[in-house]
Amino acid sequence: MRDPVAVMSMPDPMAKWTPVPDWRTVSLMRDGWSLKPVPGLGRTIVIGRIAEAIASIAPDCPMLGLWEIAQTPAFAIRMSRDKAMIVSPEPLGLTPGWNAGGWAVTPADSGYLAFELAGDELDAIIREATTTDVWAGSRSAAIVFAGVACLMVRTAPKTALLHVETGRDAYIWRWLETR
Amino acid sequence: MTARRVGEIGERRPISFQFDGRRLQGLEGDTIASALLANDVRVIGRSFKYHRPRGIYGAGVEDPNGLVDVTLSGKTSPNVRATTEKLVDGMVVRAGNADPGAETDRHGFIDRLAQFIPAGFYYKTFMWPDWHLFEPRIRAMAGLGRLDPTHEPPADSPQINERCDVLVIGAGPAGLTAARAASRAGKRVILVDDQTQPGGSLLYRDVTLEGIQGADWAQSVGAELSGAGQRVLTNSTAYGVYQHNLACVWERRLGQSDALWQIRAGQIILATGAIERPLVFPDNDRPGVMSAEAALVFLKRHGLLVGQKIVLATNNTRTDDGIDALRKAGAEVRVADRRSGAEITGVEGKSGVTAVWINGERVIADCLLVSSGFSPTVHLYAQATGKLRYDEQTAALVPAKPVSGLAVIGAANGTFDLGPSLAEAHAAGGGSGDVPIIDWAYAPYAIEAVWPVTGAKGRQWIDFQNDVTVKDIELAARENYRSVEHLKRYTTLGMATDQGKTSNLNGLATMAAITGRSIDATGTTTYRPPYVPVPLKIIAGRRRGELYNPVKRLVLEPQHRDAGAVFREYGGWLRPAYYGTGADQREIQREARIARETVALLDGSPLGKIEVFGPQAGAVLDFNSYNTISTLKPGRLRYGFMLTESGVIYDDGVVAKVSDTHYIVSCSSGHVDGVLMPLEEWRQDRFNPAEVVIHNSTPQWATLTATGPRARDLVARLELGVDLDDVSLPHMAFVEATFAGGPARLARVSFTGDRSYEVSVPSLAAPDLFTQMRALLAEFGGCLLGSEALLLLRAEKGYIIAGKDTDGTTIPADLGINGPRDKRRDEFVGKRSLFTENAQRTDRQQLVGLTVHSAEPLPTGAHAVELADGKRRSIGFVTSSYFSPVLNRPIALGLIERGLARLGEDIMLYHLGKTLRATISDPCAFDRDGGRLNA
């Protein structure tokens, strides 16, 4: 006789989902790597003629693709063919709207949370998190990290800056926390 | 069979284990199979169908018999392959498919009924009077292994993505040679092998390369590769080759969770060797009949002599060194070589070989080793769409044509002699450096093909694991299942967990002979991954629990938890269902009642906020909406639908017009991606992407909604810097505001039918806003509102939830909303579908209210039925159903055939055996004139 397979009951959401961490205080230190939120950054999305948009909003701001290293306090992250995110030390406070020059601007300071993922184990973590060959680079910094669309650049050779949409941040944190 | 250890045990630690209740001892480094053999355990399981006693046949993944259930630390894993599973202290091993044990299986009598249950018997028997009578018993007896429902392995297997220039699969002499050549040519190399150390056949055959004994040479090459920074993965099985040279490798890791490697290689080199084929003769499945190569592996790698009086039946030269080795170890070996006419005609010994018949002569023996040649392990090549051809000289199926990006070398390519194999390997690896020099190796390969003979007496076994005999193949041919695909499925040849590694070629050669075709013409079935059974835990990786299909989280989740929220999942978000510690229905009723009486606060942050910018923004939205959007005035909102191309309501929502070049689409929280994608697609395909751009701003904004008669009073206390009178801010209008010095947007739009205000602020400002609004609730006797009460309030008003009160067929006309269909002249998505015959049927299911005359709400999902010829026919179903605290009675919505023409009609409903009654009514059960929107 075969043993009966146990019937799985619906998991209780209260027990299943670990509470969202307090981003103001939380950090992770593990063997060879660390993780912490980076609060306070300004994020402004420009869409359309992004070169003109950046020239207008943040002149001389370099545009970074995947895995490139930011060497200035303000930089733009290429999201797609016609979309970029200007990252600044503080919010720029722009009003969302369309510019006659052929581009739109809208703030995203609250729309993302940035994580700094650093250490010797960075490459090994990246290998587990994404199928993208980040070392080959790409014009777009958009990748799928642990199954979630994110933007990834670096601020140092072994320090990644990962922008995750608000709402998905707790999952990314949990994925790394339970690694 | 009198298997015993030979040679020195050295420092190998003893390991205690159990088999079928017997306490036994093995040694460190043993597999379960070698430990059983060393304890002279002859019968290790029972065959799938006939429950015949079976013993260990092979030494690796090819073994068809040694499937056991293993309990370790209280957890049981079924169908573990004894020949590949390392023995661990404390293992409790049970024979496969045997009860109570392998020696004394109570179902062994089934073999006596074999003539009544040949291949395919289940297509012809157990039909009368009703096959359902037999099905439970057959299901209970079918299958292999026992599932332990308490054994849930942790979801901690990492999945590692790696890239390389050259992936070499197989670390035998050919694979090592190719890997070394590629490494010396400066390539990034990954070498994979399923054994504990590189070497392959060098670990058990006498070979000397470059002056070093084979096993030591293998170690030195492995060390060179590691020293050069290449990756050498042992205990790793490459189980699948997929498109674009993606190879999946299952790595078994000691002391930690196994890993899945997903390797993308510029070039894959397959050095996967070959598997020895059995000779086929009557009773060739007896315990003690083993692969000749397996005996050599057990001897050389485990110090185990599988028998004392051995008969070795062969048709090729590759068994020569095995014969010598067995004799040197002290066994008497009688060789029966088919090339000299010696033929095995029978085997005696139900529970272990006791005698072998050779050409009519009875020979006392305790072990019969067989070799009918070698079948190249071409599985990964065939997975990569490689085609095979039959090679007469080697009597094997070998790769026929090259596959781009993939090379097959050595025995896997049918190159069985070491010299040519190494040359081939060296070239495949790029040819850098010298081909390894062979100082000593086995004799060149020569074989005289021997295939199963039909019409013989006695049962000749082709597929041991699925109990398929030559007679079964003859039966399949007689019944016209002659193609190799039908042969496979009718007889189940090759469909067991060993996937026919030792049986496929014998089987198709038999069918070829029966049907008078060549082996090439008979062909093979399709090779599919995985090459070996792979635990689902490896494939699933860490995707379990909260890492599987994760929900989105509210910025205000900590605040909701503090407020006593009970969370549930809604549309991909974790949201408060209700607040409080009481019974759920009591809390939900409380919240709904207070919302109608005074004011309630809802976190509406997940609602989509898709911004559309540019001169063509209005046009894009008009095209993607059932309602015209572009005619809105700035500062106004309009409710409407997004349709699919079939005219079906995909989503409903509100669009806000900020200016002629800026709109905000507010869609259902669970449909944001589904709304964004078609907008973007049409933007790129039909409109000018330079004149319209789209961005999902949902995460940027948090939205808190105050709803109820006192909502305006509460919002006024927030000091948002705007006038709240109904002229300055009428229903379906919005204004830009400020909150705590930052931007805010205030909109009058109602989910509940009551006066409502949505306050949207950047998510980072949400905690402060929530704190203020929640504190104000107390002044008004208000409360926090969860999603459950919200759904109730909407249902009272007949407001739909797309996907709950509509289904995959509901079009706007089914809700009675026909204006845009009738009046719009411009094209929009789904328009044409609204005029099809199907869309204009008069018996469509339409949204109506359902009034019940009892105190109990209708069950959601209950079917409305009518009787036709004494049978029930569904005419629709209940989509939403609640007890309304403000009406003090149940309310419900449903999709009912011709519902809008049947107001006032009594209908019957049926649910789980009970009949219920309701009256079709207007969907809006409360405040039908809508006065509460401005109350």
Structure explained in plain terms:
The complex is a heterodimer of chains A (179) and B (935). Chain A is built from 4 helices and 12 strands. Chain A is α+β, with helices and mostly antiparallel strands and 179 residues long. Chain A has a 6-stranded antiparallel sheet, covered by helices on one side. Chain A has a 6-stranded mixed sheet with strand order 4-5-6-3-8-7, covered by helices on one side. Chain A is globular. In chain B, strands 9, 10, 13, 14, 15, 16 and 29 form a 7-stranded mixed sheet that branches. Chain B has a 6-stranded mixed sheet with strand order 43-44-45-42-36-46. In chain B, α9 packs across α10 and α9 crosses α11. Chain B is elongated. The model of chain B has no long low-confidence stretch (mean pLDDT 96). Chains A and B meet through α1, β3, β8, α3 and α4 of A and β9, β33, α14, β34 and β41 of B.
Give the strand order of the largest sheet of chain A, numbering strands 1, 2, ... along the chain.
1-2-9-12-11-10
Spans of chain A with pLDDT under 50 lasting ≥5 residues?
Answer: 1-9
Beta strand % of chain B: 25-35%
How many strand units of chain B? 52
Whole-number mean pLDDT of chain A: 93
Distance between the termini of chain B: 94 Å
| Proportion in helices of chain B | 10-25%
Rg of chain A (C-alpha, Å): 19 Å
Beta-strand content bin of chain A: 35-45%
- What overall geometry of chain B do the principal axes of the alpha carbons give? elongated
Could you give a short account of the major beta sheet of chain B?
7 strands, mixed
| Sheet with the most strands, sense and barrel status of chain A | 6 strands, antiparallel
Task: Work out the radius of gyration of chain B.
Answer: 37 Å
Distance between the termini of chain A: 39 Å
Structural class of chain B: alpha+beta
- Pattern of helices and strands of chain A: HEEEHEEEEEEHEEEH
Keywords for this entry:
heterodimer; A: 179 residues; alpha+beta; 4 helices; 36% strand; globular; disordered N terminus; B: 935 residues; seven-stranded mixed sheet; 21 helices; 29% strand
